[in-house]
Amino acid sequence: MKSKGDLKEEKISILLLKYSIPAILAMMVTSMYNTVDRAFIGSIKDVGALAISGLGVTMPLFTILGAFCVGIAIGGSTNISIKLGEGNKEDAEKILGSTVALEVSVAIVIMLVGMFFLEDILYVFGASSETINYAKDYMSVIFFGSWFNLPGFALNSAIRAEGNPKLAANMMIISCVLNLVLDPIFIFVFNMGIKGAAIGTIMCQLLVCIWSVYYFTLGKSNLKLKAKNIKIKKKFFKAIILIALTPFFMELASGFIHLVTNRVLKTYGGDLAIGAMTTITSIYLIFLMPVFGISQGMQTIIAYNYGAQEHNRAKSALLMSMIAGLIILGIGFILIQTIPHNLVAIFTNNSELSNIAINGIKIYTVMLPSIGISILGAVYFQSIGSAKVSVVLSLLRQVIILIPVITILPRLYGLNGVWASQPISDLLAMAIVCIFLINEFKKEKYKKKVLS
């Protein structure tokens, strides 16, 4: 593992490659897993279309779970990077312990909620009598695995924050490849259906957890996970939550919009429209995952340099990341618009479901290239500790703008109005994020002049 001093001295372009490529690879493998996983589910004999619709019903709940998992993990890892930038290793280790304690506490609550209220929640989220059993089979297993999934994810994020992004990525890649092997075994060989896909998922999450705990206890880590630090201390709890709010609300917003969208889809297109949205978002995420990988690499660089008062380097990391995101999403836009039939065919061979998904994805992704600016801009404010601004910007395209649009537009244009709501929200969100970034850069320039 190289010195954290590299984050302050090495070229930003080199750092972005070093920190982002492993994260991008991990994200791409995760996306590939999701793609193959849903393709397996969609191909289950006689029930594939309903099974993938059932999986679509679980998406709001899945993203709410992810909100806690990702939010706390990023809150912890960002604070760890800032403390290491300040040269305060002792507090970085305490934050690591507090992050794990917080994730475990949340996981226990989630397991209890899932144990007693899962079926009722799924009906609220759009399940029907035909899809409820598929949704319940999947989420009951996922909820059971939360007690090791949440702390495992937080520790993996901390590995990247302490300066070992390659190992963090390798863990995710190996677990996802293993998942690809286990899924068809549990689904088809053991004839466990959609529940088998969930079992394969949590087994791989357990691997990441065990591996990460080993690294921070007996491995060659810079920071150590000490038993005395695994407790929720008020000082560090506040610091973690402050930064965690942005990714938490981003994920929570995603879950909420899934809930709203599922209900609108059910009204204007029925269960198959929900299945079509599951297919669309699966394809959509294939191209967004690299941008999320870039944001993870960028976040470490920005947080460290901001903590070290190297604001120009932090700004350069953002601008370079945005250019890379624009290129990746631009390629995705071209592929989706030119070969939508081929992409949708990966997930279903049901002609009715395919036709709905093909029409939907061509509308849904019209503003795809702009999304990187919105995502990375919000992460920039998160990384420099501007939690309130970051939360607002993160909620723009998924809640503040999208909810009113998706409530009104389908009344005028039916199902096409549902698909068109997202690109309208994306365009407006991008414009607002750009205004905030320009103002922030002007303030930083002014502060620099005053200090000099």
Kindly describe this structure:
- GO terms for molecular function: antiporter activity; xenobiotic transmembrane transporter activity.
- The chain crosses the membrane at residues 12-30, 50-74, 95-118, 138-155, 167-190, 196-218, 239-260, 272-295, 316-336, 356-381, 393-413, 419-439.
- This is Multidrug export protein MepA.
- It is a multi-pass membrane protein.
- InterPro entries: MATE_fam (IPR002528), MATE_MepA-like (IPR045070), MATE_MepA_subfamily (IPR051327), MdtK-like (IPR048279).
- This protein has 452 residues and is mainly α.
- It has one domain (6-451).
- The protein is built from 16 helices and no strands.
- Helix 4 packs antiparallel against helix 5 (132-144) and helix 12 runs parallel beside helix 16.
- The longest helix is centred in the middle third of the chain and has 74 residues, at 234-307.
- The protein starts with 5 loop residues before the first helix and ends with a helix.
- The model has no long low-confidence stretch (mean pLDDT 88).
